């Protein structure tokens, strides 16, 4: 599969706003049911319609309110040269504001999925773009539009926001919240496996860059 013939405008580099881990927020658009069904195909894991149970987790479940005030005030530093890793911060800012989900969580998922490459192709051609949207999952019916960074990030942020708020409502926080939100419908079974390890590692790396401690 090749990317459609389209010029992509690289967004200007700005700092990501406060993380807001553990902060409740506004309502958001629900993810189409097709997303959950097809996400199971890419992970070969059972469909999961609710946050994972504690006994299946590899991380201890923190209690509510584990996020520190410092993390809630976190903003990523602007850089003079935007790499693939950092060039989408302005886009992630907007998606985070639109769906009320921490942009730094979106960035950690994006880095784990594609490294920030909008032309990345995986799963034998079934998953493409910044968030590796599966053609029978989050990317159902999108076709080559999945190669468009804006469309790809919007669809991913919408689903990840639904998961984030569902897991907040269940009382999760810290690392468990991050893993459970990633696992919820984006990658069922993966949030508490090596894929979730990558998301947590990237998020902790971003926190370290800001001089903050890792998730607990």
Care to describe what's here?
The protein has a single domain, classed as Orthogonal Bundle (Lysozyme). The chain is 40% helix and 3% strand. It contains seven helices and three strands; from the N terminus they run H-H-H-H-E-E-E-H-H-H. Strand 1 and strand 2 form a beta hairpin. It is globular, with a radius of gyration of 16 Å.
Which characteristics define this entry?
216 residues, mainly alpha, Lysozyme, 7 helices, globular
Q: Compute the number of structural domains.
A: 1
CATH architecture: Orthogonal Bundle
* CATH fold category name: Lysozyme
- Helix-strand string: HHHHEEEHHH
Q: Give me the secondary-structure category.
A: mainly alpha
How many helix segments?
7
Rounded to an integer in angstroms, the radius of gyration calculated over CA atoms is 16 Å
**Number of separate strands:** 3
Give the neighbour order of strands across the main sheet.
1-2-3
Overall shape: globular
Q: Mean pLDDT score, rounded? A: 74
Helical residue percent?
25-40%
**Low-pLDDT sequence parts:** 1-20, 22-58, 64-73
Which CATH top level class fits?
Mainly Alpha
Main β-sheet: number of strands, strand sense, barrel status? 3 strands, antiparallel
- Span from first to last CA? 40 Å
List the topology elements.
Elements: H1 33-43, H2 69-72, H3 89-99, H4 103-114, E1 121-122, E2 127-128, E3 133-134, H5 149-169, H6 174-184, H7 194-209
Antiparallel strand pairs: 1-2, 2-3
